[in-house]
Amino acid sequence: MIFVTTSHDPDEKQVQRALELAKELNLPYLPRKDHPNLSTATCGEYCYVVEKERIVVKYDKGEFFFHPSMAKVRMKNIQKGLKDHLIDCLKLTGTEIILDTTFGLGTEAILMAAFLSSGKVVGLEASAEIFVVVRDGLRNYRAKERWINDAMKKIELFRADFREFLHSSNPESYDVVYCDPMFENPVFESSSMNPLRPFAVYGTLDANDVELMLKVAKKKVVLKAHAKDTLFKRILVDKIFGSKKSQVLYGVIEKK
Questions:
Q1: What is the pLDDT of residue 192?
Q2: CATH superfamily placement of domain 69-254
Q3: CA-based Rg of the chain, rounded to a whole angstrom?
Q4: For residue 63, what are the β-bridge partners?
């Protein structure tokens, strides 16, 4: 059973938020006092738990919640003078409007937004579960690092399938279109990614998808893949950024 509830001993605000979320998602709201054991109540599925400061999706094998941890790690590395291949390949001026077609936890959107002085990131997430959790995180999470809070204010997130969104977008609506599909060869050592895998939308990019991205982009399209994936064997790019150590590659297609 899939439902919405709260943490134990909720305040009125939590209950109201949970009721509103249940209505939005067309799911039942179950008072937590009546269902202290969530594993029993979900019967092998999952539930949304409105806690005091966040929304969590809980399921048999764990829980999924918003956190910008990898964005913090990558920014610390940049500040130490280390390369970040995504930021290097983007060559941002700070005024860009970037379309992130596969938002996920928003790690890379937050990182990109941190380098935008007057631009913004428009994010798309097709998974309802990921969208709900991350939308709430962008609205309510407060980091100790001011740059993260500032970056999150420059992000607009929509629940949408990127193909449908691209089809309905005007030509050259965005400076950069970014796409980070789920790897064909998952990195299961990635502790930040593992909790959301059951809720992620899986699929393979093809030439038609990239053509749509190029139609919508003014400057470039950036694609992300694992070194063992077939993406850059199937899709021709102008340049690849990445490292042998991480096995994470970014392919750039410049708008001609």
A1: 61
A2: Vaccinia Virus protein VP39 (3.40.50.150)
A3: 19
A4: 58
Name every residue whose Cβ is closer than 8 Å to that of residue 100 and which is 6 or more positions away in sequence: 106, 108, 109, 112, 121, 122, 123, 124, 178, 180
Three-state secondary-structure class, residue 145: coil
Tell me if residue 159 falls in helix, strand or coil. strand
Beta bridge partners of 49: 5, 56
Which of the residues in the chain have pLDDT under 50?
Answer: 188-189
CA distance 84 to 67: 20
What does the DSSP assignment read for 17-60?
HHHHHHHHHT--B--GGG---HHHHHTTSEEEEE-SS-EEEEET
- Helix H or strand E segment including 241: strand 239-242
What residue ranges do the domains of the chain occupy? 3-64, 69-254
E strand spans, 74-194? 97-100, 120-125, 155-159, 174-179
